Amino acid sequence: MRLDKQAATRLIEASEWFRELPPAVVQQLVALARVRPVADGERLFARGDEADGFYGVMQGQVRISSLGADGRELLVAVFEPGAWFGEISMFDDLPRTHDATAQGDAELLLIPKLSFRQLLDDDPSLYPHFMRMLCRKLRRSFGYIDSAAFLPLKGRLAYRLVELVDLHGQPQPDGAITIGLHLPQEELARMISATRPSVSRVLKALEAEGSIALAYGRVSVLDLPRLRALADGEDADSSV
């Protein structure tokens, strides 16, 4: 598939990974990039695969997940247009850490690993920028670990909802923030390694207290400070 260089430039310039880079480097990345179409349900890569590059989503969605020994799926993230993923293996030369699967037909921008590494080797001054980005992601991962270890289910769900607002929030005229993803309760349960009935119970409790509003496959946040407080463990009621 032919690369739309203007679309590729916009995708790269809008990314937190690349937007602070000099324009000349952005154009080098565009020159390296190629388009990869994937069909609905097609696996882009599996855990343990050798990394082929860094992916940006141009159209569609990609779900990042892993399977436990009991066959349960942990849904780590759903990436929409503008998001980039696959960066870990670009730097440590180890296999992929999770599965990546197209959720609907998708069109991705691929920056090949070997070409990207050559770009960095040619200009080592770029390394500190990407190290800062990796550290930012590491801090986010520590947040996941803390929430899983110390928060009750209500706090864990609030933590994930806050993150989804930060990544996919769509402000509404009435002050609500709609999460711009189709979010069945089963998917939310997979995101925090919980059961659907327990997540449904907590969602209804959050709705009853006025923190969120629920619609079919959609969640709107009405009281973001309240959710942030729950995500920080500031809740005396840990019964749900």
From TrEMBL:
One of the record's GO molecular function terms: DNA-binding transcription factor activity
HTH crp-type domain span: 151-225
Matching InterPro entries: cNMP-bd_dom (IPR000595), cNMP-bd_dom_sf (IPR018490), Env_Response_Regulators (IPR050397), HTH_CRP (IPR012318), RmlC-like_jellyroll (IPR014710), WH-like_DNA-bd_sf (IPR036388), WH_DNA-bd_sf (IPR036390)
Domain Cyclic nucleotide-binding as annotated: residue spans: 17-120
Alphabetical UniProt keywords: DNA-binding, Transcription, Transcription regulation
GO cellular component term of the entry, any: cytosol
Keyword Transcription on entry: yes
Pfam families per record: cNMP_binding (PF00027), HTH_Crp_2 (PF13545)
Record PROSITE patterns: CNMP_BINDING_3, HTH_CRP_2
PANTHER family, per the entry: CRP FAMILY TRANSCRIPTIONAL REGULATORY PROTEIN, HTH-TYPE TRANSCRIPTIONAL REGULATOR ARCR
Name the record gives this protein: Crp/Fnr family transcriptional regulator
Species per Swiss-Prot/TrEMBL record: Abyssibacter profundi
